[in-house]
Amino acid sequence: GQSLEQPSEVTAVEGAIVQINCTYQTSGFYGLSWYQQHDGGAPTFLSYNALDGLEETGRFSSFLSRSDSYGYLLLQELQMKDSASYFCAAFIKAAGNKLTFGGGTRVLVKP
Amino acid sequence: EPEVTQTPSHQVTQMGQEVILRCVPISNHLYFYWYRQILGQKVEFLVSFYNNEISEKSEIFDDQFSVERPDGSNFTLKIRSTKLEDSAMYFCASNQRRIEAFFGQGTRLTVV
Question: Exposed/middle/buried for A89, CB within 10 Å: 0-12, 13-18, 19+?
Fold first, then answer.
């Protein structure tokens, strides 16, 4: 099967660092992406890892290890506005052009 | 900045009625999608569309659903004979490359 697994919820305080893990089982994909979704809003693209290693975009970084079937999103210097759901996602090769999402991790930032 | 637009933002319909959700993808994009998100749950893939035909569909996308690209800009999702469990947020998305998909703001469908 093709699935991406994430923790359901993470709580942290402002200024902290949060790591959201994503483990996957898929026959092959083009790369791992991360999306942010605020309540009532649309998913918006955050980052993409085509190759193994770390990609940094400001306060957010994403990591991929294909050999471990694992990736993570790192949120640094947490701000209240970072409270949202975060989804890992992948375009699955065997499925034409289908973007498949993990279950999402709800991040709650407290003062 | 180009964006995906969806109409209406909220649709209330009676059970058994047909609804059409409309989307205008970004103009130079080649791949189009519909996703569904039941309140509090994950974003679920319904269907992808490329080169004027369905390229992939999920088990959710049964005979009750259909998609159409009636002209060069619109992309529609039709739900026939709506059921209570069809109540959800429906997102349209499009992309050009297999890196990021751009999502519309969604249509909240409420079946009563």
Answer: buried
For residue B50, the number of C-alpha atoms closer than 13 Å in the C-beta half-sphere is 14
Chain A residue nearest residue B108, CA to CA: A40
> To probe the interface with A, which of B4, B100, B105, B108 has the most A CB atoms within 10 Å?
B100
Q: How many Å lie between the alpha carbon of B97 and the closest alpha carbon of chain A?
A: 10
Q: Are A2 and A21 within 8 A, CB to CB?
A: no
List per-residue pLDDT tens for chain B, 112 residues long: 789 999 999 999 999 999 999 999 998 898 999 999 999 888 999 999 988 899 889 999 999 999 999 887 899 999 999 999 999 999 999 988 877 899 999 999 999 9
Dihedral sign of CA atoms A63, A88, A44, A106 in order: negative
Among A43, A97, A102, whose Cβ lies nearest the Cβ of B55? A97
Does residue B81 contact residue B18 with C-beta atoms inside 8 Å? yes
Q: What angle do CA A47, B48, B6 make, to 5 degrees?
A: 75
DSSP lists the bridge partners of residue B5 as B24
CA neighbours within 13 Å on the CB side: how many for B6? 27
The answer to whether the Cβ–Cβ distance between B106 and A43 falls below 8 Å is no
Q: What is the spatial distance between Cα B33 and Cα A101, in angstroms, rounded to a whole number?
A: 13
